[in-house]
């Protein structure tokens, strides 16, 4: 195996690198872990609370008319409170938090598909722009040979000075097109590095896309069921319903059980104690009922606010659904148009190559001018550029269609990344935590930096396949 083949990059390899180290994706995972913590936060409101206080005091100036005031006092108090009934606020708050976890997990799927779509586009941009550079390089070389031949024929009087000027002009334009193509290739390679984390190296042609639909209607039906944005919007709407119920619970009575104990030690400074005791202990237990009669209108305002947010979530769900339908249909149309464009442009390339050979042959017998050759060469280059562009557009549109359908994630693409990231692992880890000191280790960066990557150039592999 040649060294070039050994270092070749595949699309699946690029996606796997992005899956492991793209900062947008790793940051979204961290954001989801933060969302997971809202569940134990809400659960804490319904759990027992234990508080303890302690104090030590010493009189600096003893009251002049007091005969029982101690000089020193040591106090300790502890209270345990257990919520028994909270009007449903805690229960609905927990359900809202759980539902937002599900919405966040759907959003994480959407972020993954979005990053993958960008990587696919960047991968195909590098392939296309490298091919365009190669085509323009070949065109410049051909025009240089043509200019040399035209100059030689001018020296012997076979062509005019106008023919030479036309050749020079066309070569100058070709060199300008090459410079633009090289700049586009550098931009594409730098964008690839920003998404994947490494420079593109001898990218291989992408594999066929799996599971593309036969009709736009079938694509829409799959999207309505599997698109993560729709699922997230639905879950957020459900969460707002729980928020409304939780707000309504604030006008209902609450019941809690409590027990408390106290300890006071006067440290032998209580001079007039009838029993001579310097220590006081107490303990009590009971049930507390709190009935909110009037709270300044706050509960009603909170309910109305959450009802308005629920209404907004309902409209947002329809908005997202509309957008997904339009996105799916547009992606399908772009994919189909690009496939047809590939066929048309392939015919155009074949015809342009045949035309160029014919014009050159006819020029050799004097029936065609130098300008005819230049125009035929330019048409051939344009047709080839359009063909590689159509191939790029077809693949990107096809992947965008899969993303709109909700089938462009890591488990759909069989990426070789080992165990896939499962957001439920962290949720299951934290949802039942009780301990106040159960902290996680300090966070570490998961994504890779690109500050040490070399500035890209427009060099292309020799012998790059032409359309």
Automatic annotation (TrEMBL):
GO terms for molecular function: efflux transmembrane transporter activity; porin activity. Residues 26-53, 445-467 are annotated as: Disordered. Residues 445-459 have a biased composition (Polar residues). GO terms for cellular component: cell outer membrane; efflux pump complex. Its main location: membrane. It is found in: Cell outer membrane. Residues 164-191 form a coiled coil. PANTHER family: OUTER MEMBRANE EFFLUX PROTEIN, OUTER MEMBRANE PROTEIN TOLC. Belongs to the outer membrane factor (OMF) (TC 1.B.17) family. This is TolC-like protein. It comes from Sphingobium chlorophenolicum.
């Amino acid at each position: 195996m040649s060294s070039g083949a050994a270092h070749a990059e595949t699309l699946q390899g690029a996606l796997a690198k992005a899956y492991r180290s793209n900062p947008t994706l790793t940051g979204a995972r961290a954001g989801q872990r933060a969302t997971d913590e809202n569940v134990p936060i809400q659960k804490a409101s319904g759990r027992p609370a234990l508080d303890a206080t302690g104090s030590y005091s010493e009189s600096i100036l003893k009251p002049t008319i007091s005969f029982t005031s101690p000089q020193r006092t040591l106090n300790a108090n502890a209270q345990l409170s257990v919520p028994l009934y909270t009007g449903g606020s805690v229960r609905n708050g927990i359900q809202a938090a759980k539902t937002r976890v599900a919405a966040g997990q759907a959003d994480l799927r959407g972020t993954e598909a979005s990053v993958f779509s960008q990587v696919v586009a960047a991968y195909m941009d590098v392939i296309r722009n490298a091919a365009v550079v190669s085509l323009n390089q070949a065109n410049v070389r051909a025009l240089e040979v043509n200019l040399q031949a035209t100059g030689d024929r001018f020296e012997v009087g076979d062509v005019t000075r106008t023919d030479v000027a036309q050749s020079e002009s066309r070569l100058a334009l070709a060199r300008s097109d090459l410079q633009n193509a090289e700049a586009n290739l550098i931009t594409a390679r730098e964008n690839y590095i920003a998404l994947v984390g490494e420079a593109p190296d001898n990218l291989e042609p992408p594999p066929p896309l799996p599971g593309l639909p036969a009709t736009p209607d079938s694509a829409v039906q799959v999207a309505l069921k599997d698109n993560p944005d729709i699922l997230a919007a639905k879950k957020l709407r459900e969460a707002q319903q729980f928020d409304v119920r939780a707000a309504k619970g604030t006008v209902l009575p609450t019941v809690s059980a409590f027990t408390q104990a106290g300890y006071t030690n006067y440290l032998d400074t209580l001079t007039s104690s009838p029993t001579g005791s310097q220590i006081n202990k107490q303990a009590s237990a009971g049930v507390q009922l709190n009935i909110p009669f009037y709270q300044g209108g706050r509960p009603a305002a909170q309910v109305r606010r959450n009802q308005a947010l629920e209404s907004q979530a309902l409209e947002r769900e329809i908005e997202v659904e509309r957008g997904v339908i339009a996105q799916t249909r547009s992606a399908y149309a772009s994919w189909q148009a690009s496939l047809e464009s590939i066929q048309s442009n392939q015919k155009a390339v074949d015809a342009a190559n045949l035309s160029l050979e014919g014009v050159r042959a006819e020029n050799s017998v004097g029936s065609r001018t130098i300008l005819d050759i230049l125009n035929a060469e330019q048409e051939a280059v344009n047709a080839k550029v359009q063909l590689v562009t159509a191939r790029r557009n077809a693949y990107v549109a096809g992947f965008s269609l899969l993303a709109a359908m909700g089938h462009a994630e890591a488990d759909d693409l069989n990426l070789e990344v080992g165990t896939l990231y499962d957001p439920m692992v962290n949720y299951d880890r934290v949802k039942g935590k009780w301990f106040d000191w159960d902290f996680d280790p300090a966070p570490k960066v998961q994504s890779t930096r690109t500050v040490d990557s070399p500035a890209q150039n427009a060099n292309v592999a020799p012998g790059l396949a032409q359309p």
